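Please decode residue identities from the backbone states below.
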């Protein structure tokens, strides 16, 4: 029946995640018996570490899985505050930490807090595809600043100043970033924070890939340069707990009451068994293992970077974090969506088209996730070597 449903305009405008569309087709090919190598989705292949699983299981079996406070278990907020002291040298009061359903939950809370209808948010293009949806859900306006290899796909304060409009209220950054895996340095971050402060705006920093830095001697949070920054983080990437749906937000003290009210109303609380599991993620032995996993990812990154030029994919900027390579297609290759589709159909290698992450030169780029075992990466590169689009 061809009935016109009365759903919102917003529902008609929302874009799909192209990575998920690739994943759906890849899964279908797999059920048909094809061998597929998944380099499209952003999730680590390591199993969740045993102490985390045990702590979550114990919470369930001991019936400690009722609602928590909307801002999360005090024990977990304390661990996170201590983590900032240990790894960033920052003194963060645990009352400023709100536990959320992944970084996604934190993005929803900051968007709700910082957006009145028509308020502009500066975002990088390329960037994480869902950012715009969170902003638009609260009637804000995403304002994209194109970034390219000249600035390591990160925003400079000069560019941000150029993009800043009368309606702009907030700047959302990510470091390390998705899809490029590049990070901001301290000076750049401080300059951006200075610009935002001079315009009376808010700085929001998505630090979901922190902990997965390669070569950096220390971690750099926006909180190091701006005590008033809103900082988003997650248990999905460094901690490897994607499906557990857990993250956090660090916010200025005067924002906490409103954020807690939004959290109560929108989510009640984040998954409580997951929160109990996450407390164990900060045990020193667990953190050591997570750092070892980071080293494995670095080895895989180095392997992929060494091999990609040989299969015609150039990497203009060496990624220094996360687990992605944002690679440029050969000049004579078709546009990225065709390239990715043909690659998947002919070779079973699933990667994500650049157009998932924005419009700026996006048709010439693809994103590849190297969070897969080494032998899978080797096989993928063999298949890519034999691929003629
Ligand atoms: C930059 C960035 N922010 C936020 C998210 C959302 O992550 P989650 O909700 O799993 O913590 C992702 C997921 O890939 C991401 O890449």
């Amino acid at each position: 029946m061809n009935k016109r449903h009365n759903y919102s305009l917003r529902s008609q405008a929302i874009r799909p995640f192209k990575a998920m569309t690739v994943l759906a087709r890849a899964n279908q090919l797999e059920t048909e018996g094809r061998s597929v190598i998944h380099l499209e989705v952003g999730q680590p292949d390591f199993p969740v570490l045993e102490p985390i699983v045990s702590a979550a299981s114990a919470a369930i079996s001991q019936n400690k899985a009722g609602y928590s406070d909307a801002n999360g278990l005090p024990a977990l907020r304390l661990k996170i505050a201590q983590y900032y002291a240990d790894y960033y040298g920052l003194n963060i009061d645990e009352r400023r930490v709100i536990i959320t359903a992944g970084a996604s939950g934190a993005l929803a809370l900051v968007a709700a807090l910082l957006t009145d209808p028509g308020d502009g948010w500066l975002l990088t293009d390329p960037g994480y595809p869902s950012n715009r949806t969170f902003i638009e859900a609260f009637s804000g306006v995403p304002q994209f600043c194109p970034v390219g290899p000249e600035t390591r796909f990160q925003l400079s304060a000069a560019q941000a100043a150029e993009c800043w409009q009368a309606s702009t209220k907030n700047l959302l950054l990510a470091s390390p970033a998705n899809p490029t895996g590049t990070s901001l340095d301290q000076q750049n971050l401080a300059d951006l924070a200075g610009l935002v402060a001079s315009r009376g705006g808010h700085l929001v920093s998505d630090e979901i890939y922190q902990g997965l830095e390669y070569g950096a001697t220390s971690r750099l949070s926006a909180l190091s340069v701006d005590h008033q920054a809103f900082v988003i983080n997650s248990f999905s990437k460094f901690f490897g707990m994607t499906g557990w749906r857990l993250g956090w937000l660090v916010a200025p003290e005067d924002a906490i009451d409103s954020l807690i009210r939004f959290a109560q109303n929108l989510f009640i609380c984040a998954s409580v068994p997951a929160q109990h599991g996450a407390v164990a993620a900060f045990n020193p032995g667990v953190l050591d293992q997570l750092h070892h996993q980071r080293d494995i990812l670095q080895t895989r990154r180095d392997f992929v970077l060494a091999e990609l030029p040989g299969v015609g994919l150039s990497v203009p900027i060496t990624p220094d974090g996360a687990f992605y390579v944002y690679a440029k297609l050969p000049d004579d290759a078709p546009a990225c969506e065709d390239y990715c589709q043909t690659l998947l159909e002919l070779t079973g290698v699933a990667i994500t088209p650049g157009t998932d992450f924005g419009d700026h030169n996006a048709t010439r780029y693809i994103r590849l996730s190297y969070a897969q075992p080494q032998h899978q990466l080797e096989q993928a590169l063999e298949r890519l070597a034999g691929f003629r689009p």
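Observation: Residues 51-282 form a domain with the Aspartate Aminotransferase; domain 2 fold (CATH 3.40.640.10).
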